[in-house]
Amino acid sequence: MHMADALLSPAVGAGVWAATAAIIASCSLRLKGELDDRKVPLMGVLGAFVFAAQMINFTIPATGSSGHLGGGLLLAILLGPHAAFLTIASVLVVQALFFADGGILALGCNIMNLGFFPAFVAYPLIYRKIAGPGSEPVRLSLAAILAAVFGLQLGALAVVLQTTASGISALPFSSFLLLMQPIHLAIGIGEGLVTAAVVAFVHKARPEILQAGPLASPRPGLPFSRLLLSFGLAALFLGGVVSWFASEQPDGLEWAIARVTGGEALAGQADGLHGVLAGVQERLSFLPDYSFAGRQAGEAAGEAALGASLSGGVGAMLSLLLVGLLGLILRRRTQAV
Amino acid sequence: MRSIEGAVIEFKQLDLLANGNTALHRLDARAKVLATLFFILAVVSFDRYALAPLFPFFLYPVVLASAGNLPLRFIAARIGVVIPFAVLVGLFNPLFDRGILLQLGPFPISGGMVSFASIIVRAVLTVGAAVCLLGLTGFVAVCQALERLGAPRAFTVQLLFLYRYIFVLAEEASRVSRARTLRSFGRQGLGLASFGPLVGHLLVRTWLRAERIHMAMLARGFRGEFHTRQVSRFGGLELAYLLIWSALFLLLRFAAPGQWLGGFLLEFFP
Amino acid sequence: MSHHIVEVKQLRHVYPDSTVALAEVSFRIHHGESVAIIGANGAGKSTLLLHLNGYLAPTSGEIRIGDFPLTRQTLPEIRRTVGMVFQDPDDQLFMPTVFDDVAFGPLNLGFTQEQAGERVREVLAQVGAVHLLDKPPYHLSGGEKKRVAIATVLSMSPDILVMDEPTSGLDPFSRRQLIGLLRDFQHTRIFTSHDLDMVLELCERTIVLHQGAVRADGPTGEIFRDEALLAECRLEKPLSMQGCLLCGRKQ
């Protein structure tokens, strides 16, 4: 499931982006070190393959609905974690720009959620441990299903963390979690079955393709990949959990109401609970916030009353009108040239 | 799920938009990428109940689309395809967040309703900006801009390969998928048993194609180093473009001109 | 390299799964010759072509291009000398635009951006595709793709052109255009094809491969008149040499 810009706060978005960019950089560096010039076109073309394969549906047994391949785990099996991560990232870049799946700020989160977990967690820690070279098809399927489920569970958890941390959606953490994890259990099993089916076919038809994979994957226990893993998890933790707490405090609804009502018509009611909350908020707002932008948002919230007041609403309509008019004029001019 | 053919056609349409020749199209891609990034950051930096202050931000996509001569209906359609996830998650806001934020005549407006509306507006703005960026710049130029802004080469080069072969492979995928549909009746034959070999075949063919491409590269003297042409440069025009938009975003973000405008209007026409 | 000779001596190639693709192939092609290599599916044509610019290494036997044997050291020079045009232009056109694609080879050879740009315009003019300069390959038609693919190879000034199925997948008009283009080249030309009418028009000499070995090698006209040979090798006369379908009269 793709994260969307609209649900992200800048702190979370930028934080996860930074971690993602760091992993992309280190993967690229590593790839450059491998000196296998076959790999770059191969990655690109396989990325295009995943893109195309995602458009082919299959019927999910017993449900009558249809699903499609995600491809993260499959890429990891074919290319090894580093190249797979870059390839998944590229697929998501194209999706973000062309099908606007998610958006540009959310791209960092999406790459992390859909790339990092299958490539650097599920593949090395589960798939490779269970399915060694020359495993039986049943074992292979088991490995693929477990790895896919695990990878997607982590990805879904990350979506929930990032959304909650951003504080744009009002969905409580636990409810969102209860919504996302079971859905992704089902998706994970499907993904595992499909991945296993494709791998089994390739294993029979062109075993040499699968043998090329392990060449690319890191030697087990390589310190670098551990470093990367712990770094990524730490960044995720920082970007997610910390900014969650940061945004949780100043953003509550009570606070917004207190601000709105405190400044406008309902000033007389600023006692009792509202008064207390306003007081608490006064003090809290001096606490260090998660970012400069966040603090400014607090101030602006007070002054602008954020769409709650009439003048705000009128102003919004008016600005839309003006923008539309400007657009029309510009279009005329562009077409006249 | 979109049909594959439909997706490919949409893809090509979007790709062709970047062939326009307006002043915006000619601008160095880096300026456009950065401006869009600042725009998105400014939009998402509002807190969850911000609604009215978001509207002036429509200035950016509208100006880009108009001055860049991008078809509005096409952009609207793109945005429409995308919003479901935002709606899905945003839909819970009115359910969980029922505190009344304000009273609009007889209708109480809850915080959840406001934040839901805010999520939708954010989604439209951010997605609209991304679509405009692509339509004015083209994917290849965006990639090259990313590279010149510091993205690693290995990453951008394979991104270009991916983009190039999406067109080829999507058509291949649509052929095999059509062949399967034509020989399956109802839901028979569309299950996993056929999907594995079908996609597996596609994968094997893709792999062989990658080998042929590599062969073609070697045949033309490829030795691991990509040379691409650097056409545009980041000049005064680009700097001005970036500065003006950034200043505007800061203004819209912190000064809430819509609010003034509304207040002003109400004062004169109470 | 005064003589652009292609010499193949007792070439044998066995794939890792122990399929014998080429049993024993020997021939010699001289400067400026235009030669067709024909044969049924699986006769070994593609495998043979892949040896000519060193993508596949012989299991045994030798290949000489010009004055050099094909070895690891001579490989870069030989790849420049032998321009290879693939059957599917989508494999060959991998860069974002036609310009980038045609400039790919020259830039790898160490041309500066300006020199490469000049070269690109020159060869695109030669194949009649200058107007496609800034187009991405996926917006080209089949015939355009083919001509651009040829340009990508011409841009490296090869002495020998090797083309795999040049006319496959082209409409009659594009095919006719392509044949006209190929006829004007001064290079040593080696084609594989099932389009025997094209072979008849373009090649004075034909080599027939059958089950990984040279079954016949001689003037194209003679080979196409030998019906027993053609039948044995799962081939048939070019349509233009068969009797008129309507009146039965031979040309």
Distance between the termini of chain B: 50 Å
Q: Poorly predicted ranges of chain B (pLDDT <50, ≥5 residues)?
A: none
The succession of helices and strands of chain A, N to C, reads: HHEEHHHHHHHHHHH
- Number of helical stretches of at least 4 residues of chain A: 13
Q: Count all strands of chain A and give the number.
A: 2
Strand content of chain A: under 5%
Order of strands in the sheet with the most strands of chain B? 1-2
Helix-strand string of chain B = HHHHHHHEEHHHHHH
Q: Can you name the CATH architecture of the largest domain in chain A?
A: Orthogonal Bundle
Q: What structural category characterises the helix and strand content of chain A?
A: mainly alpha
The dominant shape of chain A is: globular
Q: Write down the overall mean pLDDT of chain A.
A: 71
Number of helices of chain B: 13
Question: What CATH first level of the largest domain in chain A would be assigned?
Answer: Mainly Alpha
Strand content of chain B: under 5%
Mean pLDDT of chain B: 83
Strand order of the largest sheet of chain A: 1-2
Compact overview of the structure:
The complex is a heterotrimer of chains A (337), B (270) and C (251). In chain A, 75% of the residues lie in helices and 2% in strands. By secondary structure, chain A is mainly alpha-helical.
